[in-house]
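Example (one chain per record):
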Amino acid sequence: RRHTRCSRDWSSDVCSSDLVRAWKRAWERRDPDGALALFREDAEARPDPFEPALAGSVAIRGWWNDFAERYVHAEIDAERVWTSGRTVLVAWHGAVTERRSAERIRLRGFMSLELDGDGLIARWRGWPASRIVGIDSTVRPEGGPAERVEGADGR
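Predicted structure:
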């Protein structure tokens, strides 16, 4: 399902807000299909400035699939949204829990979403920062705690 597109006037706060709400929904639901509906087929994504760019929907889907598999309890909120022409700039904060370790990670960042004439993301660039803030007690790490192995003497 595609998000509401506003190709006629991307400088409108309503249009950029619709896009940011759709991004939030995909992130928090860990929904690769919802996220991919926001992108062009030939989009470029660079969610981390120190990693190679992802080219095309297959690579971008791979990133979102990894995100959905790796994290639970995902949250994200836009602190500030600016629109300049067909570019939406977002200062954001959020949190995720790493499924394997149950570590709760706080995130803060900035992203640039460059849109095509149909209102789909042609280029996504992100600058995230993260910090582990503790263990999420509602998540059992994958595999659970190490099993105790008893010796012949019962210890």
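Caption: The chain is about 25% helix and 40% strand.
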